[in-house]
Design a protein that fits this description.
InterPro entries: Divergent_4Fe-4S_mono-cluster. The chain has one helix and no strands. The chain is an all-alpha fold and 43 residues long.
Length: 43
């Protein structure tokens, strides 16, 4: 996983921890996902 070490921790479940970083970081990492597998929805 690239992007943010605080956002992704493959050694734990759930492995995505969005509360550890700001919203802009989450959006940026998802927008640059090369496979397009990640998505987000603003609430």
């Amino acid at each position: 996983m690239r992007g943010s070490a605080k956002l992704f921790n493959l050694k734990r479940k759930p492995w995505i921890i969005p509360d550890e970083v700001d919203v802009a970081t989450v959006v940026n990492v998802i927008d640059t996902c090369p496979s397009g597998a990640l998505q987000y929805r603003h609430k």
